[in-house]
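Entry 12.
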Amino acid sequence: MPDPRKGPQEDAMETLIEMKAAVMDAIDARASDILALGNRVFQMPEMGYREHDTAAMAAGVLRGLGLEVQEGLAITGVKAIAPGLASRPCVGVFGEMDAVVCHAHPGAHADTGAVHACGHNAQVAAMAGVAMGLIESGAISHLDGSVRFMAVPAEEYVEMEARAHLRRRGRIAFFGGKQEMIHRGHLDDVDMAMMFHLDSDVPERRVRLCSASNGFIGKMIRYTGREAHAGSNPHRGINALNAAMLGLMGIHVQRETFRDWDNIRVHPVLTKGGDLVNIVPSDVRMETYVRGNTMEAVAEASAKVDRALQAGAYAVGASVHIDNMPGYLPLEPDAELNRVFMENARAILGHDAVTPGSVMMGSTDMGDVTHIMPGIHPMVGGTTGQAHTRDFRIVDEEMAYIIPAKIMAMTVLDLLHPRGGRARAILGAFRARIARQGYAGEWERYIG
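Predicted 3D structure (tokens):
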């Protein structure tokens, strides 16, 4: 019962403190289950838009909490609906499902080379941990808003040929899973979103709040020449591999024209160099990103890269086809939402363990989300080795799986209790950079 000697604000604060304690106790009670889920996902790595087993595991856990679960969103995505006292504001808690390919990693799948060398398995586990804490403590029934727990596909922008095939078949419109969720309307009932990502080579219990990231345009490049016998008649061929090599050199000599403050990164890979060693290569393929911290800088650099690639073809008489694809928009996290997360991280880890406002040089489709709603993408420690390499390891499972679940759960409580006040204030101050209904058209500005 409320204490009549206290004002409404004091009473609400005491209730909030009690709810946070109950939620953390509930997460601790399920710690072994959260760790087990993270390890099961690690042992079953799947690439983007093929995370069927991972999605089934996430859906099973969420359904076991009594939640209404939707499956098959953007091919493999999962959404669990947790109603509170009101439907809005609605906070989305995301966990990414896909792996990367790193054959040299000891945990890599023997056949595919897929491995969670980016730590997305921890995201799925912690997302489920937030659900366990809010549901099993009973806190969800006191929130003036609702929560969507979402296992999202295909954050890693890879296997571009395979995704282009899905696009031609009409299965997807975007290569990134959150982009596809936006495009298909699966985030229309979400007002703000949070997730976390494991940091690289930070074994300590630390949190790094991101202030920005790079965006990028993706490119699929195909050089076409003319095949010939490489020993007896090379003069009758047109060497598409030579065209590609000249294109790569053309990109390299552009690098001095990239302004340091634009953070331009261009990193091509050759995915097909020819057919047989004794045939002049006539079909050569490449993929690359052009990254930068603003889409204006990316578009400018992209034009230079296209010009260099075309020059390589012209030099040897080959032809080149360049497909410019929507990449990811730069991450622009909401400052107030970051602040709420930071307060809760410091409550658990201490003031000095949380660092505000660093720039992430990589890219994420969470950037696209932050253009249409308030969102955050903090980085947490508990790892050794660089992400996407053979050396990446989770060395502190509590830091990777349990503590982020607690921080996010407490952040949800702060946002939605009492009366959803902090969430409503954040939404009142937020100005979308892109209208949801205009999202696809925004990308046409950059890729033409």
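Annotation: The chain has a mean pLDDT of 95. Residues 224 and 283 are 5 Å apart (CA to CA).
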